Known about the structure:
The complex is a heterodimer. Chain A is built from 18 helices and two strands. Chain A has helices spanning 2-18, 24-47, 80-98, 107-126, 130-151, 156-182, 193-199, 206-223, 233-239, 242-267, 269-295, 300-322, 330-365, 381-394, 401-416, 418-443, 460-478, 481-495; strands spanning 59-67, 72-78. The mean pLDDT of chain A is 90. Chain B is 76% helix and 2% strand. Chain B has helices at residues 4-18, 23-43, 66-89, 95-114, 118-136, 144-174, 187-204, 212-216, 222-230, 234-248, 254-275, 279-299, 303-331, 346-360, 366-379, 383-408, 421-436, 443-452, 464-484, 492-498, 503-530, 532-577, 580-603, 608-630, and strands at 50-55, 58-62. Chain B has a two-stranded antiparallel sheet. In chain B, a hairpin with a 2-residue loop joins strand 1 and strand 2. In chain B, helix 11 (254-275) runs parallel beside helix 16 (383-408) and helix 13 packs antiparallel against helix 17. At the A-B interface, helix 6, helix 11, helix 13, helix 15 and helix 16 of A face strand 1, helix 5, helix 6, helix 21 and helix 22 of B.
Amino acid sequence: xxxxxxxxxxIGAFVLSLWTSAGTRAARATAIxxxxxxxxxxxxxxxxxxxxxxxPLFQHIEEAPWIxxxxxxxxxxxxxxxxxxxxxxxxxFVAAAAWPIELGERAREYYAWILFLAGVSLGVFLTLDLxxxxxxxxxxxVGMYFxxxxxxxxxxxxxxxxxxxxxxxxxxxxxLAVLGLVLAGEGPLTFDMRELIARQPLAGMxxxxxxxxxxxxFGFGIKTPLFPVHTWLPPAHVQAPAPASTILAGVxxxxxxxxxxxxxxxxxxxxxxxxxxxxxxxxxxxxxWGALVALGQTSIKRRxxxxxxxxxxYTVLGIAAAGSLVAGHEAARALALTGAVVEMVAxxxxxxxxFLMAGSFWQRTQSYTMADYGGLAGVAPKLTAAFILAAFxxxxxxxxxxxxxxxxIFAGTFAVHPWLAGLALFGILLTAALxxxxxxxxxxxxxxxxxxxxxxxxxxxxTVVLAALLALVxxxxxxxxxxxxxxxxxxxxxxxxxx
Amino acid sequence: xxxxxxxxxxxxxxxAGMGPRSRGWLTAWPAGVLALTLGLAILxxxxxxxxxxxxxxxxxxxxxxxxxxxxxxxxxAVAAMVVAYAAQHEHRPGLRRLIAxxxxxxxxxxxxxxxxxxxxxxxxxxxxxxxxxxxIGHRGHEDAPPASANFAFIVTRAGDLGLFLAAxxxxxxxxxxxxxxxxxxxxxxxxxxxxxxxLSAASKSGQIPFAPWLFRxxxxxxxxxxxxxxxxxxxxxxxxxxxxxxLLAPVLWFGPAVIAIGLLTALAGGGVALIQPHAKKxxxxxxxxxYGLMFVATGAGYPLIAIVHLLTHGFFxxxxxxxxxxxxxxxxxxxLRHMRFGRALPLTAAASAIGALALAGVPPLGGAWTKEEIAxxxxxxxxxxxxxxxxxxxxxxxxATRFQLAAFGRDGMDGTCRPGAIEKxxxxxxxxxxxxxxxxxxxxxxxxxxxxxxxxxxxxxxxxLPLSLALIAGGIVAGAALARRSELGxxxxxxxxxxxxxxxxxxxxxxxxxxxxxxxxxxxADDRIVDSPARGAAVLGRAAARLFARGDxxxxxxxxxxxxxxxxxxxxxxxxxxxxLADALPExxxxxxxxxxxxxxxxxxxxxxxxxxxxxxxxxxxxxxxxWGTA
Lengths: 499, 631
């Protein structure tokens, strides 16, 4: 089932790339239909997931031998964390495929790349093999490079190149760290994540453990992105087409935090605990710096882009708190980790929809400059309502998804690192300021548009996509139990020891 | 059952937001919703606790202490009259949204009133903040309201951080968020909880230094101001302190700190209201002052008195705002010097007079009794404190008199702009409620109240009431004199003082501007400095690639050319020797090397990412070889 979730979009991408006679509509319909398949499969996997105490950490396991000499195999399986992140990602791919966008002649290739990216991204979350993880992780770079470079606007080539080189440097660091991890310790060579989690290969190795951790933190930190290696993010976002921005923020950034909790946190928790405070400090810097710099931006898209640095900072803070001890404070650490994962889901849905709406601005007037707009509430009430809802969700208003995440992260982190949590609180004040000033500039006051252009309200397909994403944001905010149970089940096992 | 207090108004608000837009429906439906909410609140059993699992081990707890029960009834009662008034009074565009939001606002307030843990409290607390943002910014097409809404939200959210802090500390100390577990907290963490609660209560209730947000909130419609000040939002701070006072009392500095903040605000707010030329802002200043008095009561150890003052204040302040709204509609703005509608609006003036007397603290109105009790409560700690409270009461009498005479003096113009029937009914009902609360003066009534709530009343010294009444009389005389000076507070230093003693300017210069300047600087630094190592690496990489390319061209190419020349020479030599077998080998080598050289030259494209890919491929190859070796 999980393998199908990866293979169906990949095969779809292959078919679309060969199907030269496909028009825009056929290509889009194919992309929507085929990206909906993994979503449906993952929902089914979710329903079949056993979150009760005593259930195994990884479920829905599929395994086929591949390179036995290296201990590499086609291993698929999910814990609660991977399950919810993958399901959210699959939903965002459907939204990205369904989002209306002007493509001109090369629509078929565009949708093929979206499907390709869907397949490899889900692969990152669903695989239980470290080498496959690395392969999928790098392939996602390729897909995003082409989406930004070929369908972006402005100086998209150089933004794409910067993105590619920066994150490739990160993945080289990860590769070295993976090797350092796998080649350490006793026993036959294996890339099986379950085996590595059980083995904790670097336990007791100070210097080597520290270096391997550094490699992972540097590599995943670029992808996340964490301060100070986040500067590839704004140009990539600004130049990318809206659906690509959504995938970049909603799915690709999650690979950084997901990697951080899947590999260093789980497979080398002793080393992680030793350096967790430093990771927490970097997260704190990302939270405050991301929010402050976002407040200083004058472009809609750059402002939203920098809030990602802030929000992913919360996630990393939660992960750092969860991994800061080998034993003790289990309830608080599980809470922080659960919050971190909910933040990944919430950020994907919220920032994903914010970027789609930024795309609506570009589609209508080709401007991201906030000062060009004003008083849009009068002409585009649906866009106004959706934007305000997403903005409040992003600033962590209760009743919406962001609050559930941030509250748990703060409460869990405080028990372990009170100062970090206390200082991080200023992040939610800054995000309130930056979103409210943006909402006011765009939607209230005197009506203003660039060059006196018209500004039609959201079209039907835009409305449907946004309504679906934002409805989930509300549902998670009001009654999050269905989301929290599988995450909490896995989080408890991860903080309780090796799992 | 208890949750219905929250869910029902919210559901009613959603229905109102999607239903018809006619004034009739928008009056009747919310009135029904709020009447039912009031009924639910009355019927709710005190001390009924209920727990709702929220997932991942988190729970939402609700419970009704006697104090909470009283406030839970006050909120829909005042709101019903204010919302009915709004449906009649406010302008047609956006009316449906306004009414719907007000109902949700009431729901959020009820949630924070019934909350029995910090998580539930925080949800209600911030929902109320968001609703007030939307309501203050209701006239979004204008310039000022959206900016004021942002100001109000951000200032109160700064206080909300205190609640986050309190929640985190409670979890760290007890493993849950429940209020009840505060009793087992270690002292250090409990002090942190107290600090957080005080911070958020002060910001919500418009205490110093957060008070200016209440002035900015006046950019919202009048009915919103009435609701905000009397029953929701601002009331939340004073309510929360009273609710948690018994649990936070072990923190030694808590009571004195609460008294200090409250008393300072009561005196300063009174001074501001005294000279404020804008009718609604005068009332807003008085709101800060009276919530300050409630803080004093709570800090002195009498949360019961604070809550009873919250009740009396709720009715008379809503009444005064609604009356000010009618006068403001008539005047076209809210400047007191454009009013004096005593003859044009006789009924409104009469209702307002009852509210003003209650605000002034004149017996036998209920507001007067609660204020005297606050003075007695303060007097149990020190006579000076009691006198300070009485001075605040004198200020209150002065600005109440000034408001009433300036807005509804009988020497002004006649006119025809008359309030509608529902506006009048709302005013009359609120006035009636204020009159009925005069029963509080009866010993039998207030003693039995204290018994039902299992609390005691402060002991009043004999000198307190006469002194207080004398001060009130003095205040009334002073207020009447000031009411004649119509230009008061419109010019020079007085206008600065009237605008919260320059506090907004201070906040602007000390917090807002530096924050935005810092943000712009950070944004520039992020582009120039933080990004520079990456750019430097890119430049370095490109330079290195160019160097390699040149080196390749110079060294490798030359080597290739040399070797192919050598090959040719060898071939010529061998052909010259006439040996066919020796001929084939060097020629092939030369050809191969030549081809290799051409290929190598072609790889030097100068495109960084291709080098990068090559390097990555090479590394992968090496790694793979290493593996084969070890496996």
